[in-house]
Amino acid sequence: MITYAIMALIMLFLAFELLYKAEYMPEGNHLFDKQNSNAMRGFWCVIVILVHIPAAYQNRLQDMLGSFAYIGVTFFFMTSAYGLRLSIAKNPDSLKYFWRKRLPKLLIPMLLVNIVSLIYHLVEGKGISFSTLINFNGWVQWLLVCYVIFWAVNRFVTFDKHLPAILLFGGIGGGG
């Protein structure tokens, strides 16, 4: 019963956060500006975190909320890529320091998680290995590949007005 109450409070908090000071946006303001997209990414991060709560503590409300987590992950990565692309379009020179900016954001949290995991295994008396500190989770590897592709495309491909159509029809034609 307590898990339902906690989950209901979390859902009320999320609803409040979405609706508090909500207002009509006049034309010219964009849904995907930096402030809005960061707020939406934060919302979806909370949803994804709630889905990863161990099964022993889950309930029906979480299951219901969790059914939207796939949308949240997709939305998070799409808005992140959109933001990266806008950033590059606004300041093409930022590609020069792309890796200096991105790698710490990816590797520092990974290292912190690995340290916590190492400490947990030490406290539990399980076998530990210091190679745990440099363990690259599959998601970290996947993000690194996405970053490499993003960087390479933006570094070596010239964007013109026809590129989206070429990619779209190339993808449709190649999928068949």
Commentary on this structure:
This is Acyltransferase 3 domain-containing protein. The chain crosses the membrane at residues 6-22, 42-58, 64-85, 106-123, 139-157. There is one protein chain. This protein is mainly α and 176 residues long. The chain has 2 domains: 1-90, no CATH class; 92-175, no CATH class. Helix content is 69%, strand content 0%. Helix 2 runs antiparallel to helix 4 (69-90) and helix 5 (98-123) runs antiparallel to helix 6. The longest helix has 26 residues, at 98-123. The chain is globular. The termini are far apart.
Summarize this structure as a short list of keywords or feature phrases.
single chain, about 180 residues, mainly alpha, about 70% helix, about 0% strand
What is the average of the pLDDT values? 78
Largest sheet: none
End-to-end distance, in Å? 51 Å
**Tally of separate domains:** 2
Number of helices: 7
Question: What is the number of strand segments?
Answer: 0
Shape by Cα distribution? globular
Helix content estimate: 55-70%
Query: What's the gyration radius in Å?
Result: 20 Å
Proportion of residues in β-strands:
under 5%
Which series of helices and strands comes N to C? HHHHHHH
Structural class: mainly alpha
Keywords: Membrane, Transmembrane, Transmembrane helix
Protein name: Acyltransferase 3 domain-containing protein
InterPro entries: Acyl_transf_3_dom (IPR002656)
GO molecular function, one term: acyltransferase activity, transferring groups other than amino-acyl groups
